[in-house]
Amino acid sequence: VFNRVRIPLREAILRAIQRQREGERVDEELLGDVVFMYIGLDANGLSLYQRELEDYLLPESRDYYARVSASWVVNMSFTDYMHHAQEALLAEQNRCAMILHRSTKLKLQAVVFDALLSARQDQLLEKNTAIEFLLARDRRQELRLAHRLFTYVDGGVEAIALTFKNFVTSQGNKIVDQRLAQLEPASSPPSASPPASPSPASRPSGSASIAEAQQTDAAFVQQLLDLHERSKKVLEECFLLSSPASSSRSLLGVSPQQKLFRPCEETPWSDAGRDSGALSSAPDPLFQKSLKEGRKTLRASASGAAAPRCANDNFSV
């Protein structure tokens, strides 16, 4: 009986998931019961579920997110794209909890990360509303979100670190150039016909000139200190660099190879984050490792190799 209905059944499940992604309400409990049937009919665990449903779901999901990301990257600002990517990841996580087997979770998240972020990384980071735009306007919440998401993309953190380094260097150079421009009139050679000497009443005294120069130098130094402090705060609040030794290092001399951004060891999606519809505040190294395993599983499935099994194959809704 199952062989006669397996194709229309699979197509119905995939259509329902597609409609849900597009905003339509579906009966998640009913879908979960139908998916559970794949596991119940298979004496070998998950092989029927993987062969008849998961192996079709993952490519369709990749195609879907490739299509929507092509539209998003053109029509959305960098920040809006990041929020939509976060919502998509949370939606797929919920879909795995309510409809699909939990062994699909990391594979599906890997598909979403690759389609929405890895494949669009260059286009996103080159947008005029990307990292440099956010740094210039001190948009720290958006910077935190971008860092959290790109932590799970190969080369993503390094690209953000390089942009941050270049931005701070540029701001520091502007301050130095302004001070040099102020000093140029004082150091310029005298003209052929020297101007008339000012009257004694209008000529500044030597002590006044020294005091004015000292005040200007103090303002110049303070500008550099303010830049250093602002940049350090951005590192600590947005890019999770909380080590005192690292924070006290001169920012203008730090390279992206020196591990500018240090991820914290927390779960990527905490219960609080799931309830509030937002990612938790820090990426998780263990999740990064698991995500890589999910990508390896996808590549193994695509090449026809046997995919590793989940340690616990119990289905949960």
TrEMBL record:
<comment type="similarity">
    <text>Belongs to the cullin family.</text>
</comment>
<feature type="domain" description="Cullin N-terminal">
    <location>
        <begin position="4"/>
        <end position="240"/>
    </location>
</feature>
<dbReference type="GO" id="GO:0031625">
    <property type="term" value="F:ubiquitin protein ligase binding"/>
</dbReference>
<dbReference type="InterPro" id="IPR045093">
    <property type="entry name" value="Cullin"/>
</dbReference>
<feature type="compositionally biased region" description="Low complexity">
    <location>
        <begin position="199"/>
        <end position="209"/>
    </location>
</feature>
<feature type="compositionally biased region" description="Pro residues">
    <location>
        <begin position="187"/>
        <end position="198"/>
    </location>
</feature>
<dbReference type="InterPro" id="IPR001373">
    <property type="entry name" value="Cullin_N"/>
</dbReference>
<dbReference type="Pfam" id="PF00888">
    <property type="entry name" value="Cullin"/>
</dbReference>
<feature type="region of interest" description="Disordered">
    <location>
        <begin position="265"/>
        <end position="317"/>
    </location>
</feature>
<protein>
    <submittedName>
        <fullName>Cullin family protein</fullName>
    </submittedName>
</protein>
<feature type="region of interest" description="Disordered">
    <location>
        <begin position="183"/>
        <end position="212"/>
    </location>
</feature>
<dbReference type="GO" id="GO:0006511">
    <property type="term" value="P:ubiquitin-dependent protein catabolic process"/>
</dbReference>
<dbReference type="InterPro" id="IPR016159">
    <property type="entry name" value="Cullin_repeat-like_dom_sf"/>
</dbReference>
